[in-house]
Amino acid sequence: MPVAWRIRCRLSITLPDGQQEPDFAIVRGLKREFLTRHPCPADIGIVGEVADASMLHEKRAKAHIYARFAIPVYWIINLQDQRIEVHSQPSGPTAEPKYNVIANYTLGDVVPLDLKDYTVTEIPTDNLLP
After folding, report:
1. Does domain 5-127 have CATH number 3.90.70.10?
2. Which residues contact 62 (CB under 8 A, 6 or more apart)?
């Protein structure tokens, strides 16, 4: 992980319409910056959710929220279908916010970890899926 970025697990992020608590977020900034505030969209490179069958619909619905506020990348670790769904190129605040690109990665694939249009590394899906 580049020095300026860090992983936060199950901690709040602040969006203009309230807070969300993704399962993980990769944010830019020093740890001490977030002692007095939560990361906002400008700080966020990736948000991610882990979903089983009972949560999958809810997690997919969050894509509209994250796309509306232009969070660059949204991952769903889809346990039911054994794949990583990577949503990118958010529409921003439109009538129907969405991610314009959705890529699916299954067992045996590698998922690019992109932060602000730069691939930092690739992670084998076998390391992320049970």
Report:
1. no
2. 20, 22, 49, 74
Please state, in angstroms and rounded to a whole number, the distance separating the CA atoms of residues 124 and 119.
14
What pLDDT band is residue 74 in, cutting at 50, 70 and 90? very high
Summary count for the chain: helices (H), strands (E): 1, 10
Would you place residue 35 in the very low, low, confident or very high pLDDT band (cuts 50, 70, 90)? confident
Instruction: Dump the DSSP string for 26-78.
Output: EEES-GGGGGSS---GGGEEEEEEEE-TTTHHHHHHHHHHHHHTT-SEEEEEE
CA distances from 40 to 67, 68, 115 (A): 14, 13, 15
Instruction: Identify the three-state secondary structure at position 95.
Output: coil
Provide the token pair at 91: 């529409």
Q: Mean pLDDT of all residues in the chain?
A: 93
The tokens for 126 are 């076998």
CA distance 21 to 13: 6
pLDDT at residue 2, as a whole number: 62
pTM, full prediction: 0.93
